């Protein structure tokens, strides 16, 4: 255990990017941690890739039409380049050229601030570019009320195809939101995700447990992506998992 902790510390002290992929959580019993085993066996990398390839079932071209690949992207920082990075990495991990649906959860706003169209526009513009380049088929939003969803719909070139509503704060779909979504063919979905899927403090705590005295404050969480692969004809989940990306502050 001490040897692995030392190895993790040496790797993280050198690296500037940490990328995690859980693999298919539907096959949880098959999961095994797959990270660089020892810094003495290879050159110290700038990017540490901790993934579980044996538990990740790549989608074959023959089965692609039978599957729907949906993603929810939790943006933790204002850097918009992370949106394209997350989409590219998920396509690569799942061996697909296009995601069927991407729902975006923007960064959590400071206490007392409300979401505005101005806050949403930069991220939505980035998503529109990915639709136009055929990396994404449809894009959606999360936790917008009727007024804000209408503002986004009227402004956007690529219209939102869906909007997630957290039923923890809203036991019944608001009638005005339901009416607007029906009129403009926007699918309303429910979810029970927290505002932050994982907080920066929780992430740093997890890194700290593996490395003991590493300066975890140097590492910041950029994005978390959750994917699900559904068999269209049967409505069952074939695979689901998470990708996590973090970067170390410039020293």
TrEMBL record:
**Pathway membership, UniProt:** Sulfur metabolism; glutathione biosynthesis; glutathione from L-cysteine and L-glutamate: step 1/2
GO terms (molecular function) for this protein are:
enzyme regulator activity; glutamate-cysteine ligase catalytic subunit binding
Q: Which InterPro entries match?
A: Gclm, NAD(P)_OxRdtase_dom_sf, NADP_OxRdtase_dom
Q: Which GO terms describe its cellular component?
A: glutamate-cysteine ligase complex
Q: Which Gene3D superfamilies match?
A: NADP-dependent oxidoreductase domain (3.20.20.100)
Domain NADP-dependent oxidoreductase intervals: 58-189
Its keywords, alphabetically, are: Acetylation, Glutathione biosynthesis
Q: Name one GO biological process term.
A: glutathione biosynthetic process
Q: How does it assemble?
A: Heterodimer of a catalytic heavy chain and a regulatory light chain.
> What family does this chain come from, according to its entry?
Belongs to the aldo/keto reductase family. Glutamate--cysteine ligase light chain subfamily.
Q: What is this protein called?
A: Glutamate--cysteine ligase regulatory subunit
What organism does the record attribute this protein to? Oncorhynchus kisutch
Q: Which gene encodes it?
A: GCLM
């Amino acid at each position: 255990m001490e040897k692995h902790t030392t190895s993790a510390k040496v790797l993280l002290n050198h690296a500037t990017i940490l990328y995690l992929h859980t693999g298919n959580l539907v096959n949880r019993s098959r999961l095994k941690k797959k990270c660089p085993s020892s810094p003495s066996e290879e050159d110290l990398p700038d990017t540490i890739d901790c993934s579980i390839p044996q538990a990740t079932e790549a989608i074959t071209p023959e089965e692609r039409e039978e599957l729907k690949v949906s993603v929810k992207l939790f943006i933790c920082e204002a850097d918009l380049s992370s949106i394209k990075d997350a989409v590219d990495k998920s396509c690569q991990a799942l061996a697909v050229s296009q995601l069927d649906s991407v729902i975006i959860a923007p960064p959590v706003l400071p206490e007392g601030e409300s979401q505005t169209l101005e806050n949403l526009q930069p991220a939505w513009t980035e998503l529109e570019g990915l639709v136009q380049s055929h990396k994404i088929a449809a894009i959606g939003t999360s936790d917008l009320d009727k007024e804000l969803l209408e503002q986004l719909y009227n402004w956007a070139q690529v219209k939102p195809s869906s909007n997630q509503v957290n039923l923890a704060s809203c036991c019944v779909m608001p009638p005005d939101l339901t009416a607007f979504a029906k009129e403009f063919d926007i699918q309303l979905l429910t979810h029970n995700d927290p505002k932050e899927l994982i907080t920066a403090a929780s992430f740093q705590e997890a890194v700290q447990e593996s490395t003991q005295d590493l300066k975890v404050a140097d590492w910041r969480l950029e994005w978390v992506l959750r994917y699900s692969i559904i068999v269209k004809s049967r409505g069952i989940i074939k695979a689901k998992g998470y990708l996590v990306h973090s970067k170390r502050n410039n020293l």
